[in-house]
Write a structure and sequence with these properties.
Strand content: under 5%
CATH class of one domain: Mainly Alpha
Largest sheet: 2 strands, antiparallel
Distance between the termini: 61 Å
Structural class: mainly alpha
CATH topology of one domain: Four Helix Bundle (Hemerythrin (Met), subunit A)
CATH architecture of one domain: Up-down Bundle
Order of helices and strands: EEHHHHH
Radius of gyration: 18 Å
Shape: globular
Length: 144
């Protein structure tokens, strides 16, 4: 690469090349660390019957998982298939405000996520729903 083709950006502290900036993008470990708490909140919001809050976190999880594919393309097509086949039923159950369908779809979604950990060589990662709702979130906010 010649000096004519180096593009710099400034993060407010220093100039960075685009290559330096790209190396700072999160890996799957950091991306998934953001997914877990969102799924936790989605689950307990649905259990509390706060469907708007469950939908909010549901959509947030989708955006994070799509970002994962964009950032780490080696996880596609499995992630795209997961979103379509395993996650979409959770979204549909939330939209329908169907607690029974949600529970079944959610359980399948978590099981499939853990299967995919094994597919990608990390069978030692087994996510589970925490036993209690998050203590930093009012699950009844905005409910009548």
């Amino acid at each position: 690469m010649t000096a004519d083709h180096i593009h710099l950006v400034n993060n407010g502290k220093r100039d960075l090349t685009l290559d330096q900036l790209a190396k700072q993008q999160p890996g799957m470990d950091r991306l998934m660390a953001e997914v877990g708490p969102r799924v936790h909140r989605m689950y307990y919001a649905a259990k509390a019957g706060n469907w708007p809050l469950a939908a909010y976190f549901c959509k947030s999880v989708v955006k994070q998982l799509q970002l994962s594919v964009e950032s780490r393309p080696k996880y596609d097509p499995e992630m795209t298939d997961y979103l379509r086949d395993d996650y979409a039923p959770v979204t549909a159950a939330i939209k329908a405000e169907d607690a029974e369908a949600f529970e079944a779809a959610y359980t399948r979604m978590v099981d499939r996520a853990n299967e995919l950990h094994g597919v990608f060589g990390k069978p030692y990662i087994g996510w589970k729903t925490p036993d209690a709702p998050p203590d930093d979130l009012d699950l009844t906010a905005g409910m009548p």
